[in-house]
Task: structure prediction
Amino acid sequence: MKPLVRIFSVLLVFAFLMAACTPATQPADSGKKQYTICFAFQDLETEFWMAGHKAITETLKARGYKVVEVNSQEDANKQLEQVKNCIAQKVDGIIVIPVDGSIALKLIAEANKAGIPIGIFNRPPQSDEGNALTVVANNEKIAEATVEYMAQEAKKLGRKVKPLIMVGDLGDPNAVGRKQGFYNVINKYPDLFETPVEVATKWNADVARDGLQAAMTANPDIDFIFTSSDFLYPTIQGVLEPLGKWKKIGEEGHVIMGGLDGDKTACSLMQPGNAYVDATGVQDLYFEAQTLLDAIVKAIEAGEKQPDAWLDDPGFALTQGNMATKEMDMWGCKLFHGK
Amino acid sequence: MDDFILQFFGINKSFFGVKVLKNVNIEIRRGHVVGLIGENGAGKSTLMNILGGVVPFDSGKLLLDGQEYAPRNPAEAAQAGIAFIHQELNLFNNLSIAENFFISGFPKWGKTPLIDRKRIRLAAQEFLAQVDLNISPDMTVEKLSPGERQLVEVAKALSQDARIIIFDEPTTSLTARETERLFGIIERLKSAGKTIIYISHILRDVLRLADEIVVLRDGEVVKTGPKRAFNIQTMISSMVGRYLGTLYPERTSRPTDEMALEVRHLSKAGIVHDITFSLYKGEILGVFGLMGSGRSELAHILFGLDTHDSGEILVEGNPRNHRTPRKSIQQNMAFVTENRREEGLLMTATVAENMGLVALPRYATPLGGVLRQSLLAESIRNTVSSLRVKVNDAFQNQAKGLSGGNQQKVVLGKWLMNNPSILIVDEPTRGVDVGAKYEIYSIINEIAAKGAAVLFISSEIEELIGVCDRILVMGVGEILGQFSRAEFNRERILQTAFREGGK
Amino acid sequence: MTVTPKFSPEAVSNTLKTFIQRLLLSEFFIFYLCVALFVALTPFIPVIASPYNLSNLFSNTWPLFAVAIGQTFVLIIAGIDLSQGAIISFTSVIGASLIATKVDPAVFGQSPIWGKLLFEDGAILAHTPLGVPIALLTMILVGLLIGFLNGAIIAYARIPAFMVTLVTQMFFASLAIYFVKSENIINLPKSFTSIGADSGLLSIPLVMTVVLAVVAHFVLSRTVFGRWLYSIGTNLRAAVVSGVPERKVIILTYMFSGFCAAFASIIYSSRMEMGRPTLGAPFLLDIVGGAVIGGSSLAGGKGKVIWTFFGVLFLALLGNALSLLNVPFFWIEIVKGSVILAAALIDVTRTRILQYHV
Result:
């Protein structure tokens, strides 16, 4: 029985220590009120989300806000719970990277009911019900610019190409936008492109691998691949390499390749002399974090309870053509070069 | 000069205030085979458990090689060179023979934690050879026959350098040939200088193997001496002594001639063959059989716990084919199983929960099965007191805290609460102390007096002779003979049981 | 039986020991712990006692408690039901795909139930007066059916519950995802979403769950069926010999477990306002953990509805408190894990104390 008592004492002391450490009991800074922002994110499973998480927390702390961080580990119910806990603590603002577009709606409804401004980062709600500050990359435009560059490269081949698109989770409007941007270009050049092959990924590397493998077996002549997210490059490489189709730009049999996000992997695959990827669409992560924070702070300070705005990240396409000048504008390349 | 390896001086032991060993004095010579006989509950097991370090003794002195010896646990006893070959074997069925040998300490590769497999295999092979077992030490124990397992236990004892080897009913699960083989090994162990204590109910075997015989009764040594001082008759009379008359309650009622249960040509391949008998209301019908005779299997089939291939079972004249325990119970049958722990009791449940289990539907509303709790509790209280179950609080105390006899009364009680008209009891007094045995016989007597039919299965001839109106003798799955009360004769019953033994 | 007087009566600290023993043996032990935790934390995080937080805390407790009741029944017969999470997910999808008022063809066009259950202007029963009640009934029936499947395989094929329910868990979790191709069905009618909507402390989920709990408690403690459950869990063989219709009881138990999962699915789905194919996936540890912390034993034969309530409440309170304390998320999981371990330790200690008291 002794060890049991000990375990409980440890747990209890532990709880008290934590309680003592929380700034909830600290007095606010003299004069100026310290705002508390609740940051609920889904998980940190890809570079993009890790970089986004870092950008947001660092910016908030640099500005002197107290940040309450909660991780829902991709559990929507848990995220709902966590946001409600934040509301119970009467935070001044909420920033969410939602698990998906449908739970975002419910979170917005809860925040609206409590009169707390809520910002949705990068993953837009499934519909535009409710009031929220939503910052989202203009996926369609970015994808279009990227695929346009790829199409120009394809033209140089002087023959028709067989395109393939790795489609994202269609419950995520981002994925829908990227797919739309891709088709805008495909339809623009009917003489250049054969009918595209679609591979569903559900934003899941395993699903993507199986689908791509099947598609490559059925259509060995594919020579143009657009992936809706950069995090799938290792997956693509894993499928193409054994087929002898993972070739650098300029080598015989190179598959024209492009993606979207602008992560570190994409950057590494675009390095001169060692480039496999022709172009990648960049979501300007730092711009998005900055814009959303500015908007929510402005709303808090103005006493707005249900700010509602759609904040657009125009993004850009980093291509082999503009690498020299634009490379360091891409967040993934900043990470790649250690900045 | 006498060379005693083991000496008991004035050993006493009580459990729960009941004296189970009274001033026991025994001296055992090195290199001899000592036969230890006595009825169940006479104290044999307790005496051996003391020797094996399972239980401590209260007072007295125990000398091993002239040194005082009081093992605190089985490991100490094993270290002292005492090996106990139990009735229920203590091998790990899922491990290989070699692994079983070294389970308490595997030899290692130098100082590494890696097991030196080659060494244990070679060592195991050597000890298997000593007991004439020509099998691979890598074989898992579950693949062995009961006889082979027994020999593996003996080999294991040898591997642990045992000097005194105790055999507790070693032949109950062995075939005739395996028994012969075991006896050969025992002779060889003796000539190799090992001391053997041989416990058995099969008196012929004891007479054949032992140099000296010790008879225990009621916790006392009543007779001891060299083999030549004994024959079967004197062994029995000293085991049973003056108690024979009072060990069993008087049968006060007579069987009726109304049929309760009729079995016709019941067969199940490899288990029972062409069993035919009738059981009458008010009768206590004994079934005598040794282990493997099919007696318990027959009971399982009758109660619907097992299926049969052909033949008929008629309960009060009605044939029944698809039987389950539940249907049997609805026909007022009851079955006190041989194995209390596995099949009889909910050990961690309270006495009351156990008592109520069978009769629950009787104390519930027909729709929804809502219990009438006060009625049920009342009934349980009555049963506990009428069976004189010794328990502080039947509604709080768990069944596993009771003594064997009281546990058995709880099992009987749960069936009695359902007012059975046919009661099957399988070894109802196994592991029950002498006093409680008498009470259990009385309870069974009373049930029969109230008109129920009782099928009493046992491997103890004396209790069948003491309690039953009629005895069926079973062996190799068949009924080999039938005795009415007037013809009861221990020798003839045994002879009948063994008639098929050589087949 | 060896009776070693480990708790020596001469000991000076005897009173304290008796007190701790009694506390440990009390079936309200976990409840006392909940109260102690609550009282200890209130000065540090007063917000924990705010009505908003309490309503929040309980609104998460009710559905979890409902599933855990089913799990408790299964644990009592020494089984385990790993498929409850999958039943929650699957019935959530089934229910929503009957009543969604608007379905986006771009999202669900690929779904195998598109054109069968789902249509652009709403699901098959959307906009019909009895749509929602029929959907609720269907969810419950599906839960019962999956439970029946579990129970029948366990009872007749005698495959361990762990295996059987692991397989049904995989099967129905995948089937839920396949039906809607991983998408969440939103746009559920108001009459459905209002079931789980927050309406202060006295909510519909509370009433529903309390009724379920009272019935379950009555069945366990006052009926033949309840006694049979405990006997099967304590010693299956002895129960069979004693005439317990074990197959029937096992099947009914797993059906009840499925029922409870579907029941919770109704609350969860309406609260989140969607049919979600991955809804139940994260709950398993909390369900089994809640029951075990309450005092049900994985070895069977032990468990009470009220115990499970305390267990679930304790887990919820702990999670809530740690979250309000802004403890980093990984600490929450570590502490929860430690608590479940502590519960197992308490169980062992209890058993040991009880042995000395026989």
Q: What stands out?
A: Chains A and B do not touch (no CB pair under 8 Å). Chain A is about 45% helix and 15% strand.
